[in-house]
From TrEMBL:
It comes from Winogradskyella poriferorum. Residues 1-21 form the signal peptide. This is Serine hydrolase. Keywords: Hydrolase, Signal. The keyword Isomerase does not apply. It comes from the Bacteria. One of its GO terms (molecular function) is hydrolase activity.
Length: 550
């Protein structure tokens, strides 16, 4: 009898686990389908792993539009800036071997590098605090990108530029720093950067589909890169593979990237204590903490700690996320810079740890009285005032700001509402005395109490010509692992931030724009020659500079 009971328990457990896995796979499929709706467009490959093993592999869209070739999980992509984690780990491997110190000045390895009397260390290169100007912000990147250069010629291209700030005083994402790290790897090891990565990382880990990028080699299952133009998809702008070098030139697959992540998690290449220096952020000279460590950035997702890095280069968009305690890894590789692979991987990771973001399929219908129940002004703990109001048959939210932007919010229950992307929610409640409360939920909770205050007017916009708008087209870096791509289509302008959907901007004047889907204002800045070099983001009472990098 005991044997029969045990057998029944085992069978039931197996069936229950199978049902759970099927449900999770369906969640993953739904997330991918939300972002990749056109099977004839450029696509992506994604992988979700738990405890070091893949639990989901998916390929969507086309790997080659001209030949009408479907994407497969084995497709090879440029990794773009995900390359930086390989470069950083290579440096840490050399440190463990006693061949360099992170406190070594870079002139120990590149004696003729002009440091303007400053001490720039290997550490400063790794965490983007060197102050060296990034070569991707010098001149017209699309013209420079077509030029083949030796490594020394590439360094000569930027080394005499004035520094942006003193070493360790600030953080600014910097491709020049990682090119210099590639040079240091070559000087210390006696091997080319490509050979070092292949001999000491790719081959030992069995990453047989990975290599330094090449236009001339025949690469099996290579996914062709695309960009989105005014009239549809076009082949991505040409990029000489000598240019990204140790900052972005490696290529790989989702399966090989899982091998890489397992090597990090299992301390195959470096000690656990050494990895901690890479994944826990770092500090400026004044002690201020920054999220970027060495080739990887800190991440908190639905309360779970981890690390991440994204990549973006002509025709390619990539993102990887690892959640430490849950041992969950998500990697996404896309063959179009127009695709929002960051949002896909973020939502897959949340679902994988049992904390999925809601989506429009979770929205329910409420009657007008149910919706109007929560109308009012709420003041939150951080001082923010948000107005909930009813218009055009739906509930909307306006945050008092320089833009007074209006958001649509959608009911998930009678008292729970989400914003369109599912990443932000409201949870309303009402006490017995009729006082209302709203909890604003992101990765943290912010409580708002109802107040008596009139709602301000929404911002008005003007129309600008394509000639004016087109000067703003490009990629801007706002923070570690966080870029904003500005795209112009006709007389419309759009912004797409890392991990978010593309959204329209509206002109207040020729240089000032605001969003209606987010409480933000963007002011584009020009240099003395009239060329756009950055924008200033006004959001949440703060100002941030996003430098144009492409």
């Amino acid at each position: 009898m005991k044997t029969k009971i045990s057998l029944i328990v085992v069978v039931f457990s197996f069936l229950f686990t199978t049902a759970q896995n099927q449900n999770l796979t369906q969640q993953f499929d739904d997330i991918v389908a939300q972002y990749y709706t056109d099977v004839n467009a450029p696509g992506a490959t994604v992988l979700v792993a738990k405890n070091g093993k893949a639990i989901y592999r998916k390929a969507v869209g086309k790997s080659n539009l001209e030949l009408d070739v479907d994407m497969i999980p084995e497709n090879v992509f440029m990794l773009a800036s995900i390359t930086k984690q390989f470069t950083a780990i290579a440096i840490l491997m050399l440190e463990e071997q006693g061949k360099l110190s992170l406190n070594d000045p870079i002139t120990k390895f590149i004696p003729d590098y002009p440091t303007h009397g400053k001490t720039i260390t290997v550490h400063h290169l790794l965490n983007h605090t060197s102050g060296i100007k990034s070569y991707t912000s010098i001149g017209d990147l699309r013209q420079i990108a077509r030029q083949d250069k030796t490594l020394d010629e590439l360094i000569d291209f930027f080394k005499n530029e004035p520094m942006d700030f003193d070493p360790g005083e600030d953080y600014r994402y910097n491709n020049s720093g990682y090119v210099l790290l590639g040079k240091i790897i070559e000087v210390v090891s006696g091997e080319t950067y490509a050979d070092f990565i292949d001999n000491h990382i790719f081959q030992p880990l069995g990453m047989t589909a990975s290599q330094y990028g090449s236009h001339s080699k025949l690469i099996k299952n290579r996914a062709m890169p695309y960009e989105e133009g005014d009239k549809g998809y076009v082949n991505a702008s040409y990029l000489s593979m000598s240019l990204p070098h140790a900052a972005g030139a490696l290529t790989s697959t989702i399966d090989d990237m899982l091998k890489w992540q397992n090597a990090l998690a299992n301390n195959t290449l470096i000690k656990a204590s050494t990895l901690q220096k890479a994944i826990n952020g770092s500090k400026l000279n004044n002690g201020e903490h920054i999220d970027y460590g060495y080739g990887l950035g800190e991440l908190t997702l639905k309360g779970s700690k981890g690390y991440t890095h994204s990549g973006g280069i002509f025709g390619t968009s990539t993102n990887g996320i690892y959640l430490i305690n849950e041992d969950v890894y998500v990697i996404g590789l896309s063959n179009c810079s127009c695709n929002n692979i960051d949002a896909v991987t973020t939502q897959l990771a949340a679902a994988a740890i049992g904390k999925p973001y809601p989506s429009m399929k979770d929205v329910i219908q409420l009657n007008e009285d149910q919706l109007k129940k929560w109308v009012g002004a709420y003041q939150f703990e951080d001082g923010t005032v948000r107005h909930i109001f009813f218009k055009d048959g739906a509930l909307k939210s306006m945050r008092e700001s320089t833009t007074n932007t209006v958001f649509d919010i959608f009911p998930l229950s009678e008292n729970r509402f989400m914003f369109a992307d599912g990443n932000i929610e409201y949870e309303f409640s009402q006490s017995d005395d009729g006082k209302k409360q709203a909890i604003f939920i992101t990765d943290s909770k912010n409580i708002g109490k109802q107040i008596d205050k009139a709602m301000p007017e929404a911002r008005k916009e003007i129309t600008l010509s394509n000639d004016i708008l087109s000067q703003y087209d490009g990629k801007y870096q706002l923070a570690p692992n966080f870029n904003v791509v500005i795209t112009v289509k006709g007389n419309e302008i759009f912004a797409q931030a890392t991990g978010q959907e593309q959204f329209p901007l509206f002109a207040e004047n020729e240089t000032t724009f605001f969003a209606k889907v987010a409480a933000l204002k963007v002011v584009f800045n020009k240099n003395a020659s009239g060329k756009v070099e950055s924008f200033t983001l006004h959001q949440g009472g703060q100002e941030s500079i996003a430098k144009k990098i492409e």
